[in-house]
Amino acid sequence: MARVARPAYAEAFEAVAGRPLVRLPQMAGRSESEIFFDALAFNGVDVRADGEQLLEPFSAALAQALAARRDDLAASGQLLPGATQALAAAAKLDDTVQSVLTGNSKPTALLKLRAFGLDGFVDFDIGGYGSEAYPKGTLLRVARQRASQARGVTFGEDVTVYVADSPRDVDAARIGGARSLAVASGRASAAELREAGADAVLPDLADTAAFIAQVIRLTGA
């Protein structure tokens, strides 16, 4: 999706910051707020004076720029094998709520999942997003609290599973009080994810039964 995200990012940055995006920071594995604050600094904008007040308008402008490119999102992106089936199967488990913990803002996350028909499996109102000023571990706790308040039940640490693909996410699960189900579909290998301390590791999401079995095992369901 980088081919679509980069020009959208440049368009949104210039609209909000009032100057062109000459240098784009490293984006992979980072939250939208982290990337934006670095982009401000790299392109001569006073982060301390203007960063916080520009973040929300930037997130809205980025979502608008991506929405204008929605057809390109699906064309340039990739739906991982088994992702749809895994979400659909997890949604059928009793008392299960699915959401996202992502570096994207809420509107951008919705656009990206909708491009691949995955948005219907996710409750976006209780998710954690990169436009919020929390590290991922804290954001996981915030998302769990939102879920508890929205559903009127307590989602404890022992019944929360964070499915992700990086050692950084494994650390976030530990800090945020969740079981980590790591999938070696990103840049990290299965060995690296195990070394990071993941509670369970899968090579991919192609085996739906194996995915569900790990979710059940990790939650004691």
Order of helices and strands: HHHHHHHEHEHEH
Instruction: Tell me the strand percentage band.
Output: 5-15%
Shape: globular
Extended strand count: 3
Helical fraction equals 40-55%
**CATH fold category name of the largest domain:** Rossmann fold
Count of helical segments? 10
Total individual domains: 2
Give a structural overview.
The chain is mostly helical. It folds into two domains: 2-75; 80-219, HAD superfamily/HAD-like (Rossmann fold). 53% of the residues lie in helices and 5% in strands. It has ten helices and three strands; from the N terminus they run H-H-H-H-H-H-H-E-H-E-H-E-H. It has helices spanning 2-17, 32-42, 47-67, 70-76, 83-91, 106-115, 136-151, 167-176, 190-195, 208-219; strands at 161-164, 179-183, 200-202. The chain has a three-stranded parallel β-sheet, sandwiched between helices. Helix 9 links the parallel strand 2 (179-183) and strand 3 (200-202). Helix 5 (83-91) packs across helix 10 (208-219). The N and C termini lie far apart (36 Å). The model has no long low-confidence stretch (mean pLDDT 90).
Task: Offer a concise description of the structure.
The protein has 221 residues and is mainly alpha-helical. The protein has helices spanning 2-17, 32-42, 47-67, 70-76, 83-91, 106-115, 136-151, 167-176, 190-195, 208-219; strands at residues 161-164, 179-183, 200-202. The protein has two domains: 2-75; 80-219, Rossmann fold.
